[in-house]
Prior knowledge:
Blueprint: E1 2-3, E2 9-10, E3 12-16, H1 45-57, E4 62-66, H2 76-84, E5 91-96, H3 105-111, E6 115-119, H4 125-132, H5 137-149, E7 153-160, H6 169-175, E8 182-187, H7 205-215, E9 220-221, E10 230-234, E11 241-245, E12 258-261, E13 267-268, H8 279-284, H9 289-300, H10 307-312
Parallel strand pairs: 3-4, 3-12, 4-5, 5-6, 6-7, 7-8, 8-11
Antiparallel strand pairs: 1-2, 9-10, 10-11, 12-13
The structure holds S-adenosylmethionine and iron/sulfur cluster (SF4).
Amino acid sequence: MLIDNHGRLVNYLRLAVTDRCNLRCFYCMPEEGNKWLSRDELLRGDEMLRISKILVNAGVEKIRITGGEPFIRKDIMQLLGDLSKLPGLKNLSVTTNGVLTAPLVPELKKIGIRSVNLSLDTLDKNRFFTITHRDEFDKVMNTLDQLLIHNFSVKINAVVMEGKNIGDIIPLVNLTKKSPVEIRFIEEMPFNGEGSHYPVLHWNFEKILDHIRTSYPEIRKSEDEPFGTSTNFQVPGHAGKIGVIAAYSRTFCGTCNRIRITPQGNLKTCLYDGGVGNIRDLMRNGASDEKILTTITERISRRALDGREAERMREPVHESMATIGG
Ligand code: SAM
Ligand code: SF4
């Protein structure tokens, strides 16, 4: 078992498989895109599988594939298939923007994936374009339909942005009336490749909840997932749920069970740290599995207490979420 220096169990890996993306979400990267990693800098499929195997053998039970946009990678279905066969891995899931995902849904199901997080900040085609700088709304909605038709457990991630999609909060909650989806409203974090968009966070979790209560005063607290980041609610009688993720306020660090590997193989033991070691270089320099594991456990044993401490210990944040994986 992997236990950090604050007694927290680490059993969840978020693996970002690419920094590239077919959208340009305003809160994630500049319109012109990031300075992309070269093919050589990116982890290869066999390297990602190796890191995953080492970590699953050490007690990791859940892996989420993220990015950039995971389905941009040509070898992604092969990697998902290989990961799904790892003995000891109980939960394999994907976070996607949904642009390329719809035709792959049946295959994802065959592989054994049961839950997908779909990023969708608006139900309005024009606002989608304003936020993502790409005209791909219909494809994303088709992915949502396909996931529901194939009985996936679907969580919709919606970043709440002042002046961009506040008018979408209630329509998104309305979706939960008939659909068994979980809509998760996320506080905007300063990971847009530039630095914060606002001097202060306008929409924190409390304000988001107050806004929902203006239309749905009857919302009730519902069960939170163990180690989850979202605080969950439900409108009585609705099929789906609502979650609020205090990603900027960082109210959930006390039970954080996750580590991250970035597309170039950096290990992050906190979303807000600047990277605590490069596993790709270790592997390419011939390190054994044992050496890789001891390096990771050593870093886990020096983990920041919370996101505030991690942020204090680094250079100012200017990276894009596409190089972290969310
Ligand atoms: N491209 C995929 C997608 O969009 O679902 C996976 C990668 S994306 C970086 C993972 C998640 O991070 C998405 O749900 C996205 O909304 C969220 N995200 C990106 N930038 C963010 C930011 N600045 N603040 C809060 N969430 C952010
Ligand atoms: Fe791409 Fe996801 Fe970032 Fe949007 S949030 S630009 S879809 S990586």
